[in-house]
């Protein structure tokens, strides 16, 4: 009887679990070998049709300065599900960071917060609170 009650209790918790608790992919600590990671796009790769707006180039340049921090942050656009990204850093290793305003805002937010002395854990908490949403990319 006790086993049946336990099973029913577990099932009820599973039924009422909150999908919002599902955190996008990120790494809990800095990479051991940055050179082993794909590079963040830079230089001549920040031109062409994909980089029509100044903020797109700006956010990639900032991302390159805090790549180790981005590695430790999730991306709320859920590109981990759609594109297999493993952290916010992945968004800037290709064109996704230029195409997705969520990634771009989170990237700029991470750069801004890092310059203010925040730790990756503190920045993660801000991303979880959606603090980056108030960023106006056209003004940055």
Your description of this structure?
This protein has helices at 2-15, 54-65, 67-70, 79-82, 96-99, 101-115, 120-128. It is mainly α and 140 residues long. The protein has one domain (24-134). α2 crosses α6 (101-115). It is globular and about 35 Å long.
Topology, element by element:
Elements: H1 2-15, H2 54-65, H3 67-70, H4 79-82, H5 96-99, H6 101-115, H7 120-128
Number of β-strand runs: 0
Shape: globular
Distance between the termini: 62 Å
Content of β-strand: under 5%
Number of structurally distinct domains = 1
Structural class: mainly alpha
Helix content: 40-55%
What about the largest sheet?
Answer: none
Q: Would you tell me the overall average pLDDT?
A: 81
Number of helices: 7
List unreliable stretches of 5+ residues: 1-20
Specify Rg, calculated over alpha carbons. 18 Å
What are the secondary-structure elements, in order, as H or E? HHHHHHH
What is the compact description of this entry?
By secondary structure, the protein is mainly α. Helices cover 44% and strands 0% of the residues. The protein has helices at 2-15, 54-65, 67-70, 79-82, 96-99, 101-115, 120-128.
